[in-house]
């Protein structure tokens, strides 16, 4: 029972590099979400997806790209990483029932130097 | 801008006492409300969901919702040291969830 997994768990990258964070869920949930969590800001929604090939912007989408070619995967790409993107990134999924009860992955701690 | 507001704390409560966590939200049409618990360095986990006015109890936890006042709260009875964590209030708005910044709860042994 893998649930929802994220990889890598920790990543250090340099400013200007492209980096992709992976998210995989085994529940066949239709909805998937990407959040970042920073001190003083709480959890902020970056992008979300209601189904394969359907994505939409959240509160802080600038500098990020997502895709969802398969229901179970929802990768997040930082096209040209900046220091302000240093954060903990959480992926979550939901079956859309119960008003969007969400289940979170373990998180990826990303440091941009 | 839809908002969910929480007192950041820390809220210090003696072991065995009742911890009371509060949350207000700005969107009058919200229908679903959640409390998540997050331990330091871990991901959020759902504690309670509540959808209608009144109280909902689950073990030591009680969620209270007042839609007219746009207010949702979480009571933790018989607080234990293991309850020390950050508690996130979350509100369903359209097909998204908006989270508050969380209240840090510290249970004093």
Mean pLDDT, all residues of chain B: 93
Could you tell me the strand content of chain B as a percent range? over 45%
- Count of alpha/pi helices of chain A: 0
Secondary-structure-based class of chain A equals: mainly beta
Q: First CA to last CA of chain B: what distance?
A: 40 Å
Task: Provide an overview of this structure.
The complex is a heterodimer of chains A (113) and B (109). Chain A is built from no helices and eleven strands. Chain A has strands at residues 4-7, 10-13, 19-25, 31-38, 42-51, 54-57, 64-66, 76-78, 87-94, 103-104, 108-112. In chain A, the strands form two sheets. In chain A, strands 2, 4, 5, 6, 9, 10 and 11 form a seven-stranded mixed beta sheet that branches. In chain A, a hairpin with an 8-residue loop joins strand 9 (87-94) and strand 10. Chain A is globular and about 40 Å long. In chain B, a hairpin with a 2-residue loop joins strand 9 (85-93) and strand 10 (96-99). Helices cover 0% and strands 57% of the residues of chain B. The termini of chain B are far apart. Chain B is built from no helices and eleven strands. Chain B has strands at residues 4-6, 11-14, 19-25, 33-38, 45-50, 54-58, 61-66, 71-76, 85-93, 96-99, 103-108. Chain B is mainly beta and 109 residues long. The chains are: A mainly beta (113), B mainly beta (109). Chains A and B meet through strand 4, strand 5 and strand 10 of A and strand 5, strand 9 and strand 10 of B.
Question: Could you name the key traits of this structure?
Answer:
heterodimer, A: 113 residues, seven-stranded mixed sheet, four-stranded antiparallel sheet, 11 strands, 51% strand, B: 109 residues, six-stranded mixed sheet, globular
């Amino acid at each position: 029972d893998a649930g929802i997994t994220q990889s890598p768990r920790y990543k250090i990258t340099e400013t200007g590099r492209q980096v992709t964070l992976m998210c995989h869920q085994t529940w066949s949930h239709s909805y998937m979400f990407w959040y970042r969590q920073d001190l003083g800001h709480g959890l902020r929604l970056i992008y979300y997806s209601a189904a394969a090939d359907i994505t939409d912007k959240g509160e802080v989408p600038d500098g990020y790209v997502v895709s969802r070619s398969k229901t179970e995967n929802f990768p997040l790409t930082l096209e040209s990483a900046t220091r302000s993107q240093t954060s903990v990134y959480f992926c979550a999924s939901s079956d859309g029932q119960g008003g969007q009860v969400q289940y979170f992955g373990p998180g990826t701690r990303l440091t941009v130097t | 801008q839809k908002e969910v507001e929480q007192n950041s704390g820390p809220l210090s409560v003696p072991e065995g006492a009742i911890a009371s966590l509060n949350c207000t939200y700005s969107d009058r049409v919200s229908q679903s409300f959640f409390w998540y618990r997050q331990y330091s360095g871990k991901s959020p986990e759902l504690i309670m969901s509540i959808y209608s006015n009144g109280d909902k109890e689950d073990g030591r936890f009680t969620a209270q919702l007042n839609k007219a006042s746009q207010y949702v709260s979480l009571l933790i009875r018989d607080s234990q040291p293991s309850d020390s964590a950050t508690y996130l209030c979350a509100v369903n708005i359209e097909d998204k969830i908006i989270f508050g910044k969380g209240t840090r709860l510290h249970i004093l042994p």
